[in-house]
Write a structure and sequence with these properties.
- It contains 16 helices and 35 strands.
- By secondary structure, the chain is of the alpha+beta class.
- The protein folds into six domains: about 110 residues, ATPase, nucleotide binding domain (Nucleotidyltransferase, domain 5), CATH 3.30.420; about 140 residues, 3-Layer(aba) Sandwich (Dna Topoisomerase Vi A Subunit, Chain: A, domain 2), CATH 3.40.1360; about 140 residues, ATPase, nucleotide binding domain (Nucleotidyltransferase, domain 5), CATH 3.30.420; about 90 residues, no CATH class; about 110 residues, Dna Ligase, domain 1 (2-Layer Sandwich); about 60 residues, no CATH class.
- Strands 13, 14, 15, 20, 23, 24, 31, 34 and 35 form a nine-stranded mixed sheet that branches.
- Helix 2 crosses helix 7 and helix 10 crosses helix 12.
- About 50% of the residues are buried.
Length: about 700
């Protein structure tokens, strides 16, 4: 590693289900150093600091004091919800709405599934409290807040021993006065517990969605706060005293203090980092339209990116059954959250996904995962059930002596025995046929995810490039592209830690919203100006607190709109003009018609249009590290040759599908190198499998561009 003096550095850490990835970037030269350690599910902060310490040990020229900031993506909030380990929380609402969380919504993820059961409310009924008060839909007081009744409710909450309280009163998005008074009363009696007001967290209409979001915010806040405090202490222990930033579900970052206060915005921070990395890389290389494919040890995520921007949605749920198609994670099966999130499809197919034979004699893969503890059988850490990683090892696609750059030795015989006894023998197949079946079944599930984000949303996959990364992504990306009809694949430099790098190429983002619900011909334009002005003022205040954001903040405005009588709205960016006048409104309405036609295939120019919510994103720009250009020394890839080994490819017509395949060391591949598949490309954090009929070219920055030789 080349010594670097007087530089400034940034660190990104992404905790996954199996591995924790770290990336250190020299802000001056763009030089990247990576680390990968096994995750520590029982204490995620330990894995985090191990990844940071390993980065500092690898490059001892980096002084901890020279680190500008540390950015972190974590699933600690999601895991708490899924595992039912949220903090004990109370819920306070308007009299008559105590059962709001129990009733939820009268929709189900599978219409004819008679066995479907809604997830239990995060707050049990005995901890749901009512206060006499009422506002109308315009925020006018119908019934004054009963202070004496409120005092009794506060006493009951104090006796219940809760760690957090969520407050959601009817129509508080219009007038937060009653909610604020309830919050002050609780804080006066219980100053040490977390209190979340819906008018602060998500001031938008639809009371159940607002309540659900606020409850989730309160119930995970104590856990997230303790977790971030532990990380901050561990960073200080190794003399890293810079600001800690946390990835949001929407793809931006915000300070750890803000994350501890409003953790609902980071519930899906882990998956968002990969999509941001793919969007940034694609745009930098002149490919703004890409499909991000991130396959780690536990899950695989796919997201479509157009014009360099990941798609953002607010219709998603957390903690429900694994599915896709509505919002990011299935919509109806879990707890809904009304905060912006990168729209992606996530399935239980990762390197650690377990293969098994069901009662009907069919081979299945996932969604159960071996995770980091005990891990795949070949890790030798106590795993007994075969996984996708074991199958790739048996097929010759992984080198048992060069896993994780040689830091871990894989047990090939143990993997073969597990696949034979648990899959091959019950199915009457050879070990290699069973291993190939495991990989192909997983591939089919992942191809369906790629089609969900492309074909089923009206996009032709042939117009996109697939960016494959994650510890297991490059081993499957080329085969997935072939099956999905995507002609170009790009494997970035350091793909196993690309999500961690994505943390370092995003900006500080703060979200704000205000509800209008008014038809366009009735709106007072001054009201729009006033609301945007109020949101910008709040955004500037938040921006000043974020130490890592430099320069003046940038504001992105959008209006959520719908045809009058529709139930759901579309988010439309506002016209560029800073003056909000009739021309501005006409352009906005025309943009909505266009967006509706794109989304649903038709427009209704004569129908009245309703403006539902105003949204403002405050962006604090963070300078992005430059990619390092490599010296182009020609197209000869032989300088990186590591020899050959037998690898199983179903496309090969030779004996039993096995072909002697060239193996390349990616670190030694020069810019401009060109070679054809089949080929194996190895690097410390992952292995890239190039199938027959595909050609590899190394670009000027060391990325692998892989194209199909024919026509898909």
């Amino acid at each position: 590693m080349i010594a670097s003096t007087g530089g400034r550095f940034r660190i990104g850490v992404d905790i996954g289900g199996t591995f924790t990835d770290g990336t250190l970037v020299d802000s001056t030269t763009g030089r990247v150093t990576t680390s990968k350690v096994l995750s520590t599910p029982s204490d995620p902060a330990s894995g985090f600091i191990s990844a940071v310490q390993k980065l500092l040990d690898i490059d001892d020229a980096v002084s901890p004091e020279a680190v500008e900031h540390v950015v972190h993506a974590t699933t600690v909030a999601t895991n708490a919800i899924i595992e039912g380990k949220t903090a004990k929380t109370a819920f306070v609402t308007t009299e008559g709405f105590r059962d709001m969380l129990e009733i939820a919504r009268q929709i189900r993820p599978s219409l004819y599934d008679l066995q479907f059961e809604k997830p239990p409310p995060l707050v049990p009924r005995q901890l749901c409290f009512e206060v006499p008060e009422r506002l109308d839909a315009k925020g006018q007081v119908v019934t004054e807040l009963d202070e004496s009744a409120l005092a009794q409710v506060v006493d009951r909450i104090a006796e219940s021993g809760v760690e957090a309280v969520a407050v959601c009163l009817l129509h508080s998005y219009r007038n937060p006065d009653h909610e604020q008074r309830v919050g002050r009363a609780i804080a006066a009696k219980l100053p040490d517990i977390v209190i979340s007001l819906s008018s602060d967290v998500v001031p938008e209409f639809r009371e159940y969605l607002r309540a659900s979001t606020t409850v989730i915010n309160s119930s995970v806040a104590p856990i997230v706060s303790s977790y971030l405090s532990a990380i901050s202490e561990k960073l200080r222990a190794v003399n890293v005293t810079c600001e800690l930033l946390v990835m949001q579900s929407s793809g931006g970052v915000y300070p750890a203090a803000a994350a501890a206060e409003n953790p609902v915005f980071m519930v899906e921070s882990g998956p968002a980092a990969g999509a941001v990395a793919a969007a940034s890389l694609g745009s930098a290389l002149g490919h703004p339209d890409v499909i991000s494919f991130d396959m780690g040890g536990t899950t695989a995520k796919a997201s479509l990116i157009r014009n360099g921007q990941p798609s953002i949605t607010k219709d998603y749920s957390v903690g429900g059954a694994a599915q896709s198609g509505t919002g990011a994670f299935g919509g109806a099966s879990g707890y809904p959250i009304r905060t912006p999130v990168v729209d992606l499809v996530e399935i239980g197919a990762g390197g650690g996904s377990i293969a098994w034979v069901d009662s009907g004699g069919a081979l299945r893969v996932g969604p159960r995962s071996a995770g980091a503890d005990p891990g795949p059988v070949c890790y030798g850490l106590g795993g007994e059930e075969p996984t996708i990683t074991d199958a790739n090892l048996v097929l010759g696609r992984l080198d048992p002596a060069y896993f994780a750059g040689g830091e871990m030795s894989l047990n090939l015989e143990a993997a073969r025995e597990a696949i034979q006894t648990q899959c091959a023998d019950p199915l009457g197949l050879s070990i290699q046929e069973a291993a190939h079946g495991i990989v192909e079944i997983a591939n089919t599930a992942m191809v369906n995810a790629l089609r969900l984000v492309s074909v089923q949303r009206g996009h032709d996959p042939r117009d996109f490039m697939l960016i494959g990364f994650g510890g297991a992504g490059p081993a499957h990306a080329v085969r997935l592209a072939e099956q999905a009809g995507i002609p170009r694949v790009l494997i970035p430099l350091g793909p196993g830690t690309a999500s961690a790098l994505g943390l370092l190429v995003t900006d500080v983002r703060m979200e704000g919203s205000a509800t209008l619900i008014v038809r366009s011909e009735e709106i007072e334009l001054s009201r729009i100006s006033d609301e945007f002005g109020r949101l910008e003022s709040a955004g500037r205040d938040a921006h000043r607190i974020a130490a890592s954001a430099s320069g003046e903040p940038v504001f992105e405005r959008a209006v959520e709109m719908r045809y009058w009588g529709q139930s759901f709205e579309l988010s439309v960016p506002t016209p560029i003009s800073s003056t909000i006048d009739q021309t501005w409104l006409d352009e906005l309405i025309e943009a909505f018609h266009d967006a509706h036609e794109t989304a649903y295939g038709f427009r209704a120019n004569d129908e009245p249009v309703e403006l539902v919510n105003l949204r403002l994103t405050t962006i604090g720009k963070i300078a992005r590290p430059e990619m390092r250009r490599l010296e182009n020394v020609g197209s000869d890839a032989s300088v990186a040759s590591k020899g050959e080994r037998p690898v199983y490819f179903a496309e090969n017509s030779g004996e039993k599908g096995i072909v002697s395949t060239p193996v390349y060391d990616r670190k030694r591949l020069p810019a401009g190198a060109v070679f054809s598949g089949p080929a194996i490309i190895e690097e410390p954090d992952c292995t890239t499998v190039v199938h027959p009929s595909w050609t590899v070219k190394v670009d000027d920055y060391g990325n692998l561009g892989i194209e199909y030789d024919g026509k898909l």
